[in-house]
Amino acid sequence: MSPHTEESVARLTDAARRVVNAVVLAGPDAADATALAATLNAVAEELERRAPSREERMRRMWAPLDSRPHNLVDGPENPLAPPLRIDREQDDSVRARAVFGLPYQGPPGFLHGGVSALVMDHVLGLATIWAGDTGMTARLTLDFRRPVPLFEQVDVTARQVGVDGRKIRATGTISAGGTDCVVAEGLFVTPRPA
Amino acid sequence: MSPHTEESVARLTDAARRVVNAVVLAGPDAADATALAATLNAVAEELERRAPSREERMRRMWAPLDSRPHNLVDGPENPLAPPLRIDREQDDSVRARAVFGLPYQGPPGFLHGGVSALVMDHVLGLATIWAGDTGMTARLTLDFRRPVPLFEQVDVTARQVGVDGRKIRATGTISAGGTDCVVAEGLFVTPRPA
């Protein structure tokens, strides 16, 4: 259910993601940092030279509006994405899983709490879209119960739980080994008709 | 006030960040994706080959505990970081600014709400540390009032506002052009003495 992307572009994104990981792993003792930076800059320059303008790229990104392979949570075209593997359940709820690596670290050995917030914002919004009642996020509340481990599979759920006029509520969790680590609630508001 | 890092490593991180941006800009029509992916994989391989083990790297990351140049919000050693430029005010509150590019996009032309959440989680925690009362994040609440624009300067504030026993509260904002876009509150709990 994650967005579809040309395989060569997905591999390019994976390679950029691998570079991100390797830079964080190498850290302050990175070998040949100056030479490797030059190589990376040359790759970036080549991509930039032949890329569409930012305006053109943005126009294409949002046509059609429901195809978002560039998003930073599960997008196969975005090296910032962990990525999550997201599936749509039969009841239109969201189930996702991911293994977070070193770049996403907050406390030693655990996920940055802000990444949990990023993930929950994304999947709660998706749950409302899949339930057919999309709106803008108005409020997001996260309860952090246990730290989320790095380097092992983490399970994510989200579902719409109620609609009251223009207000939509969705709830979700991040769990590891069957134990809830983060419990989130989102309030979304449908725009007024024009 | 952002963490210090060797200049060649900061440049390597900047180059990786530029690659991330260029991959997102190029998108599904990326030129020479297969060849460029091979170059990126070769860079990653070289970094990985000479990097410390993950365990060793993590040990070094957290010594000393208050030096976190690898973090994904303002870390000069982490290509995932936008990065924010963070300053400590005279009253120990946090002031930060950033310009977010295409990889951080949520709705067309605006920041992903989850990135606002990531940023606020980070700076609210920092505000409690600078006030001398650090604890684990227990609850984070975000009110989204207006979308946060991409490609222009965004201002971030955070300050500790109260301590009640083991509970610490901090509040903060993300604003653009002087108007609050996101208002956040964090509740932190100091661990019980062992």
What is the secondary structure topology, with strand pairs?
Two copies of one chain form a homodimer.
Chain A: H1 7-26, H2 33-50, H3 54-61, E1 85-88, E2 94-99, H4 113-130, E3 136-144, E4 153-164, E5 167-176, E6 179-189
Antiparallel strand pairs in A: 1-2, 2-4, 3-6, 4-5, 5-6
Structure notes:
Two copies of one chain form a homodimer. With 194 residues, chain A is of the alpha+beta class. The first copy, chain A, has four helices and six strands, in the order H-H-H-E-E-H-E-E-E-E. Chain A has a six-stranded antiparallel sheet, covered by helices on one side. Chain A is globular. Chain A starts with 6 loop residues before the first helix and ends in a 5-residue tail after the last strand. Chains A and B meet through helix 1, helix 2, helix 3, helix 4 and strand 3 of A and helix 1, helix 2, helix 3, helix 4 and strand 3 of B.
Strand pairing plus helix content of chain A: what structural class? Answer: alpha+beta
Which parts of chain A are unreliable, with pLDDT below 50 for 5 consecutive residues or more?
Answer: none
Give the neighbour order of strands across the main sheet of chain A.
1-2-4-5-6-3
How big is the Rg of chain A?
19 Å
List the chains of the largest interface with their residue counts.
A-B, 88 and 87 residues
Helix percent of chain A reads 25-40%
DSSP strand content of chain A = 25-35%
Instruction: Kindly report the average pLDDT value of chain A.
Output: 90
Overall strand count of chain A = 6
Count of runs of 4 or more consecutive helical residues of chain A: 4
**Order of SSEs of chain A, N→C?**
HHHEEHEEEE
Global shape of chain A: globular
Largest sheet of chain A: 6 strands, antiparallel
So what's the oligomer here? homodimer
Could you give the distance between the termini of chain A?
32 Å
